[in-house]
Amino acid sequence: MAIEQTTESARDRLLLEHIENDPDVTQASLASNLGVAVGTVNWHIKRLIEKGYVKVKRAQRRKLRYLITPQGIALRARLTVEYVDRSMRLYRKTRMQVAEMLDDVRAAGYEGVRIETETESPDDITDICRLTCMEKGLTILNGDSSAPTLRVRGPKVQLIMDGHS
User: Fold this and answer.
1) Rounded (to 5) percent helix, strand, coil in the chain
2) How far, in Å, CA of 10 to CA of 49, rounded?
3) Which pLDDT tens digits describe the chain residue by residue (165 residues)?
4) Residue 82 lies in a domain
5) In whole angstroms, what separates CA 75 from the centre of its chain?
6) C-alpha span between 38 and 27 (Å, rounded)
7) Per-residue DSSP letter, 4
8) Are residues 12 and 54 both part of a single domain?
9) By residue range, what is the domain housing residue 37?
10) Residue among 131, 17, 135, 128 at smallest CA distance from 79
């Protein structure tokens, strides 16, 4: 997950998690894991140090060790709970919207739908669509282009019936 694509609280949570898992982690490896420049990681770590969430100690001549303070542990825990809460709200909202779309599909007399995604690899929203289809007893079709389609674009799902959007 690239750090620029996340909120500040998500950036803090990710950095704190990585540091907690490996206090000897380098800024270069953090940057590589998070998909950002070392300077970006440096800026964020300095900010966490200034706020009292992380302490830095010199482990060797050029090696630093990062330690999460009790305040940092509390922040990471709070941010994790908030992340899980946001994720569950998105899950419930998406599942409800997809269920309503599938009710419309069933009401129109169809027994199956196609699922169209932007990427080849499955994502969470596509998984929600698949699970909701199973729950509703609808078949997921692969080839029938005349079948209703759930079009997944990032976090958004659109129902396309009769070839019209």
Assistant:
1) 55, 20, 25
2) 17
3) 333 345 778 888 999 999 999 988 999 999 898 888 999 899 999 999 999 999 998 877 778 899 999 999 999 999 999 999 998 999 999 999 999 999 999 999 999 999 998 877 668 899 999 999 999 999 999 876 788 999 999 889 999 987 544
4) no
5) 19
6) 6
7) G
8) yes
9) 3-68
10) 17
| SS3 category, 17 | helix
Long-range CB contacts (< 8 A, 24+ apart) of 15-19?
A: 15/41, 15/44, 15/45, 15/48, 16/48, 16/53, 16/54, 16/68, 16/72, 16/75, 16/76, 16/79, 17/76, 17/80, 19/54, 19/66, 19/68
CATH number, domain containing residue 133: 3.30.2300
